[in-house]
Amino acid sequence: MDDIALNDPGAGKPIGQYAVFGHPIAHSRSPYIHAQFAKQLSIPMAYRRIDATPEAFATALVAFAAAGGAGANVTLPLKGQAAQLVAVLGREAERAGVVNTLTRLPDGTWRGDLTDGLGLVADITERLRLDLRGRRMLLVGAGGAAQAVLGALVDAGVDHVVIVNRTPERADALADRLGEPSRISTIYWQDLAESGAYDFVLNATSAGHAGSAPDLPFALVHPRTLVYDMNYGAAASAFLAWAQAAGCKFRYDGAGMLVEQAAEAFRIWHGVRPDTDPVLAALRAEIEAS
Ligand code: NDP
Questions:
Q1: Active-site annotation holds for 79
Q2: What is the pTM of this model?
Q3: How far apart are the first and last CA of the chain?
Q4: Which atom of ligand 1 sits closest to the CA of residue 254?
Q5: Quick check: 115 and 101 in contact, CB under 8 A?
Q6: H-type helices in 181-254, by residue range?
Q7: How far apart are CA 258 and CA 225, in angstroms?
Q8: How far apart are alpha carbons 20 and 209 in whole angstroms?
Q9: In this structure, which residue's CA is closest to atom 29 in ligand 1?
Q10: Rounded distance from Cα 207 to ligand 1 centre (Å)
Q11: Cβ distance 133 to 157 under 8 Å?
């Protein structure tokens, strides 16, 4: 997988410089996805990975800007810090307090946006054509990913969100942040089995990276429950196997979300939204092959 995507416009014309910052970053699929978008729309751009620790991030961003950086994605563990470094925050980013998309403004400062939630909602409602409205939802996890998508899910019309997290204080903090007690509540893990079945269960934990799934009772789902894992590839296997064993028909991993959030960042930078279907198909083939 190339780190840099180039559609050289020729005649010495400048090429827009883009990047993804994170630590670690070698695993990031973003260069591949943006290369596909750029090719599809014949937009000249270079997109590379920049490994930056939290201590080095601010300096690395200044260096990137000095080298002509026009936009960047930001991933773990820098999303909260990115929100502190920008001059302007988009609505989603301000509400969540995290940023995944940076855009250089004409005065040299940065604007921060958050496209994760829009990407998740686009994947479910537009690509999978499933309605989120009125669903009683269980959000499993309260880390950065859960924080990034909760606002967009509430906006998309989810009826009520119950948040459960291994460390309950983080679930409470996330619910408090959104400040909508009639729409969002929390529950202790040990009380889950008594809380009834949900219409939508979203796994926003990182347990899959260790090959495991969060320990959940089958009583949480019914056959038509939408079960979605924000992880993808091998990291989603254990949770989706749990959903299958529980008899759920609608089971999806987060590859679609990954492509849709990238498409939204691409739209912010270039003013045009790519066709995501062929890119998702190509990404799945890449994931299979790796
Ligand atoms: P964080 O490290 O911020 O949070 C991890 C979360 O997982 C916490 O809620 C943590 O609980 C929980 N957790 C970890 N292990 C277990 C376990 N064994 N059982 C139960 N809960 C567990 O990570 P992020 O929130 O940033 O990311 C979560 C996942 O989402 C990642 O795997 C990431 O790859 C994926 N993701 C996918 C995206 C996409 O576009 N598809 C976008 C962003 C993220 P506790 O608080 O108790 O530690």
A1: yes
A2: 0.95
A3: 10
A4: 41
A5: yes
A6: 237-245
A7: 22
A8: 21
A9: 206
A10: 7
A11: yes
* Rounded Cα–Cα distance for residues 132 and 14 (Å): 43
* 149: CB partners within 8 A, 6+ apart: 116, 117, 120, 202, 204, 230
**Residue pair 193/218 in contact by the 8 Å Cβ criterion:** no
Burial class (CB in 10 A: 0-12, 13-18, 19+), 117: buried
Ligand 1 centroid to 139 CA: how many Å? 11
Please list the pLDDT of the chain residue by residue as tens digits (290 residues). Answer: 345 566 666 656 678 999 999 999 999 999 999 999 999 999 999 999 999 999 999 999 999 999 999 999 999 999 999 999 999 999 999 999 999 999 999 999 999 999 999 999 999 999 999 999 999 999 999 999 999 999 999 999 999 999 999 999 999 999 999 989 999 999 999 999 999 999 999 999 999 999 999 999 999 999 999 999 999 999 999 999 999 999 999 999 999 999 999 999 999 999 999 999 999 999 999 988 88
Stated length of the chain: 290
